Amino acid sequence: MIPELRTFIAVARHGTFAAAGERIGLTQSAVSSQIKRLEESLGFALFDRTGRSATLNAAGGETLARAEEIVGLFAKLGELPDDENAHGLLRIGAIASVQSSLLARALVPFRQQFPQLRLRIVPGVSMDLMNQLDAGEIDTAIMIRPPFGMLPELTWQALVHEPYRLVVPAATTGDDWRALIQAHPFLRYERTSFGGRMVERFLRSMRLVVQESIELDEIQAMVQMVANGLGVALMPMVEAHLPLPDPVRAISLGEHTFYREIGILQRAPQVSQPLVNQLAHCLRDAVRPVAQVGVGEASGPW
After folding, report:
1. I want to staple 94 with a disulfide (CB 3.0 to 4.6 A). Which of 2, 58, 142, 298 is the partner?
2. Which CATH architecture has domain 89-160+262-286?
3. pLDDT of amino acid 291
4. For the chain, which residues make up each domain, given as ranges?
5. Residues 187, 149, 141, 282: is their CA dihedral positive or negative?
6. Phi then psi for 68, rounded to 5 degrees?
7. Under 8 Å CB-to-CB from 176, ≥6 apart: which residues?
């Protein structure tokens, strides 16, 4: 029943089944089915439904606080009791591209300060990590900035701005990114991800028509596909994947360059635990400018 409780919390916070579904990665019909199962299990309705809106009724309002408590307790089931070697657990959500670079560097001084603290690195895409933080399942998230507004109880600190480049096979002639992106098969950064939405927005704003070929949500895989001649791709220059391999090169978008912002999402300062604030400090200190953009493009500030 935990998934149904999480969906109930999402609907209560976002006001409609459709909005809740978008935040937690479910269709509107799936959200409706989960709420129906929950209401049948409890024996009473949770919402007053008017048009597309879903407003908590009196019973729903009383149930919400209990549901949040239950979900929070469930998230803590994996925590072991404190002993002489373990003084608590910090759950850090992190997208894959920061785990081997920014996060790895930040954890060196952090561990020196808190050697007995246990850490759990929770992988995931940005949308999932944001939902887990919202549900109390993780303590902080290092992720891509959402392309929409965030809940008022969450705060965002920017860490890194990664420029998007057009990555092409090294043997491709010319540097006219507009012509190249339309002349070759296009490897699309998965459009439901935060980074992929930025690509979609850019293509629309530039009124570019691309030859859709492959859609995926793994930057390293995109690089390798470009290297194998499968097409071209708009992707952020991620530290973990630089320098780019010799078979590919990156072409600047010039004045049209847009950026993927990586940062740390946490609860508002008044409720954020000191450990999360100290981790944020270590992350800021660990930010390192990337000197080499990739083959085919001069290095320099972005």
Report:
1. 142
2. 3-Layer(aba) Sandwich (3.40)
3. 42
4. 2-75, 89-160+262-286, 161-260
5. positive
6. -65, -40
7. none
Q: For residue 196, what are its two tokens?
A: 């992929």
C-alpha–C-alpha distance, residues 69 and 174, integer Å: 58
Question: Helical H runs in 76-101?
Answer: 96-99
Q: Where are the alpha helices (DSSP H) in the chain?
A: 2-14, 17-24, 28-42, 58-75, 96-99, 102-113, 126-134, 177-183, 194-205, 219-227, 274-286
Residues 105-155 pLDDT 10s: 999 999 999 998 999 999 998 989 998 888 888 999 999 998 877 777 788
Between 25 and 290, the higher pLDDT residue: 25
The answer to whether 276 and 90 are in contact (CB under 8 A) is yes
Are the folds of 2-75 and 161-260 the same?
no
Could you name the CATH architecture of 2-75?
Orthogonal Bundle (1.10)
What burial class does residue 214 get, using C-beta atoms within 10 Å of its C-beta: 0-12 exposed, 13-18 middle, 19+ buried? Answer: middle
The CATH class of the 161-260 domain is alpha beta
**pLDDT tens figures, 27-72:** 888 888 888 888 888 999 998 887 778 888 989 888 988 888 888 7
* Residue 144 CB partners (closer than 8 Å, separation 6+): 95, 126, 193, 194, 195, 260, 261, 262
Q: Which residues, in sequence order, are bridge partners of residue 262?
A: 144, 160
